[in-house]
Amino acid sequence: MTIKKGGLILKTKIILPILLIASVVLIAGFFALTPSYIQTNGDLKHFEDGDMSFDLPAAWTVYEYDDPIKTPFLSNNPKDIIINPANQSEYSYSNGTLNETGNSTILNTSATNATDVVIVQTEITKMDSLPNGTTIDNAYQSDSIYKLMEGTGNFQLNNQTTFDINGHTAHQFVYTVSYTVYQDTWIEANGHYYRVLSQAPTTVYDEAQSSFNVTLSSLKLK
C-alpha cells in the first residue's frame, strides 16, 4: 500500500504542474487572440470594431474598450459606445463654480471631488430603425429630453444642418437644454441608423467641441 500511495503522490506531483502550465498557456492564448480595438498614434487614438472606426484625442477613452481585462468579453458589434475623457476631472466644478488654473472655464486637476465632475462625452448608438413618429429630418425630437423640455421653454434648437461624413449624409442638430449643449448627429448607412450624441455644459462646450469633432469627422461606417 505504501508503494501504491507513493506512486499516486508522484503522479499527482507531475500532473499538477502540467495542468497549471496548460492553464496559463490557454489563458495567455485567449488574451493574445483578443482583437485590439484601440491603437495610439501621437495625439490621437484610433478605434475600430466590426461596424465602424473613428479617431479620438489621446487623452480620451472608449468606455471599457481601453481595458485589456474586459476587451476579450466585449462585442465586436456593440449597439452603444461611450467616449469621454480618461481623466474624469478634466472638466470639473470647483466649489460650485467653474475654474481652471490657466483658463477661466475649466478646472483640470485630479484632486477634484468626484461629485463636482461634469458630463462631457460622446455616445454612438446603432439602431435598426428610427424611433416611432420621427424622420431623420427631425430625429432629435425622439429624445426624452425634448419631450420633457420642449414645452417649458428650456429647449432651444440652436442650429440644424446636413453635411457629408465619409460618403454618408449627416443630419446634425445642436440644441441647448438648460445649461447643457447637445450636438446630435444622425446618419443612415448600410440599412442602419447611427446617432452620435455629444454633450457638454454651456461653459465648456466650445472647448470640448474640438474633441467631439475629431471623432465625428473621422467616423467611417462599414
Gist?
This protein has 222 residues and is α+β, with helices and mostly antiparallel strands. It has helices at 2-32, 144-149, 205-218, and strands spanning 38-41, 44-48, 52-57, 60-62, 80-85, 93-94, 97-98, 121-127, 155-165, 168-177, 180-189, 192-201, 220-221.
Features:
single chain; 222 residues; alpha+beta; Protein Transport Mog1p, Chain A; 2 domains; seven-stranded antiparallel β-sheet; four-stranded antiparallel β-sheet; 3 helices; 13 strands; 23% helix; globular
Number of helices: 3
Q: What is CATH's topology name of the largest domain?
A: Protein Transport Mog1p, Chain A
Strand content: 35-45%
Low-confidence parts lasting 5 or more residues at pLDDT below 50? 24-33, 95-115
* Element pattern in H and E: HEEEEEEEEHEEEEHE
* Mean pLDDT metric: 81
Using only C-alpha atoms, the radius of gyration works out to: 24 Å
Distance between the termini: 68 Å
Classification by helices and strands: alpha+beta
Largest β sheet strand count, sense and barrel closure: 7 strands, antiparallel
